[in-house]
Fold this protein.
Amino acid sequence: MSIRTFLLVFAGGAAGSVLRWWTGVALGHRYQGRFPLATFLINVSGAFLIGALSTLFSIEWYHRHESDLAAVIITGFLGGYTTFSSFSLISFVAARHGALADLWLNIGLSHILCLISVWVGAIVAAPFPHASRALLRALRK
């Protein structure tokens, strides 16, 4: 891994983390129920973005380390933005406190809607392969 790639992942991760924090603060003040709405919406939107962006830029998961664009967007930005570790902690705490309905609601909805969001993101982005290739060429110059 080059220093350039390292810095791109670092910058993308910082930007994604700031956006995750801001989204959590913005939604946390509006919706203060027991359900972790901010974390849930961040995970679903992150799943949508990873589906759309990986399709637009023709980035396969197994090859995400081969380009700077994949490093900054997929690994850096979306890695910093999505909150699966927070999701896991919320699920653990719900289980520990015996809130089994909350536990399974969080797990079930997050998994199903995130899978659907990746699929919908890929479908939405599929008509734009020529535009994404032109953008990639422009970014590489």
About this structure: DSSP finds six helices and no strands in the chain. The mean pLDDT is 84. The chain has one domain: 3-140.
